[in-house]
User: Fold this.
Amino acid sequence: MTTATPSRLLTPAEVGACIRQFRELRHWSQEQLAEIAGLNVRTVQRVEQGDSASFDTRRAMARAFDLNDIDALNKPFSLPTAEELQAAQAQFERDHITLAVAPLTTGRQLASLITSCEMDLSEPAFELPREAAAEFAALIDYYREYRDCHDLYSETDKLDIYDELQQHIDALRVLGVSLCHGQRKVAVQMGSGAPMNATVLYVVAFRLGHEPTQIATPKAARIG
Assistant:
């Protein structure tokens, strides 16, 4: 059986190989990794090609991969064996599901989506600046309230709802944030009763111009 190499500082080529392996285990594109790490896509490409990476760049990537030690890539490191990589990939596949996502651009579109789903999971894919975080939170609060009582609105009233949602979406775009959406069928366990089938709407905030076509999300998650 192959054994792990002794702990040592990784060469730039080894760092690149590790980053690529970590990224592929999560089914992320280079663009998605750049988005989550807050880096330029070209930086990710250079690192994976074996070019030198700065201390801060390695830290940013460690954060993106949720490594327990954000300086793990700046310290002596033991390369995983092929068996360990296969086990890690298998575990990730068991714990996650890949969803297709598409741009969410209009208030009418969002209103239709939120009323067709019983639940939602809404979150940013990167750390939002304070103003953008407040705008995103306001959007979530607004459409969740609308979902809970949409059947009480007349068709004329709904036009105002569409406009209000559109204002939040446009405000986010001005702040450099765009939205993507996806859907997923789930079985929700409520106490000891039979599972309830439901559709979950995913609304995810990305940096404008860096929207992916797929996301990997945990199979088990707290939803609203």
